[in-house]
Each structure stands twice: as structure tokens, then as C-alpha cells.
Amino acid sequence: GINKVEYEEDSRIQFAGTFTVHLEDHSLGNILRMQLLQDDRVRFAGYKAPHPLEHKIEVKVQTNGEITPHQAVMEALQTLSSTFKGLQAQFEKNLKSMSI
Question: Distance from CA of residue 39 to its chain's centroid?
Fold first, then answer.
């Protein structure tokens, strides 16, 4: 099969690269970009869906060199995972209190 995530280092820009994430769309691309931009060590974060019929996104990341693009993405994903776990717990707590 195909790898879920592929990485290509940018040969022209220092501390930059592009992650291709297969079988994902704007939902992941936008939230990952927003989380990356919260990190002061990230100089640039953007994504695109190359074609509507291709089920993949390309996430470009440039850092200031204190961390690698790979580290920046991993930290962003860990933060998002924690955020969503907290949101799920709060949702479940509120759902139980409503007696639905």
C-alpha cells in the first residue's frame, strides 16, 4: 500500500519541507495549519489540496531552525490530539448531565 504521510525537504528554502498526507482533506489541513501557526518557531505553514479528485493534502512548513518541520508537525498533532480528547471528555460529561 501507500504511505499515509510522505515528506520532501525543500532544496531551496532552509528548514522547510512539504508533507503529503493521503486520504485527508481541508478538515485536517486547515486545523493543522492553524495549530502550526501558534508556534513561534514556525515561520510559515500552509496547505493545499492539489486537485479535487485526488484525496490528499500538501502541508508546507518552514521553521526558524530551532526545531525541524517534522518536529513542528508532531508537536502540533500532539497538541490537537490533547485538545480533542479534552473536548470529547467535556462533551460526554455534558451529555450525561442532560440525561439524553
Answer: 12
Strand segments, DSSP code E, in 1-100 are 5-9, 16-22, 42-48, 56-63
pTM confidence score: 0.89
Pick the closest to residue 47 from 68, 63, 33, 35 (CA basis): 33
Task: Report the C-alpha gap between 19 and 32 in whole angstroms.
Answer: 11
For 56, residues 6+ apart whose C-beta sits below 8 A from its C-beta are 20, 21, 22, 23, 24, 49, 50
* Relative orientation angle of helices 26-36 and 69-98, to the nearest 10 degrees: 110
CA distance 11 to 13: 6
Residue owning grid cell 513561534:
40
pLDDT tens-place string over residues 10-30: 999 999 999 999 999 999 999
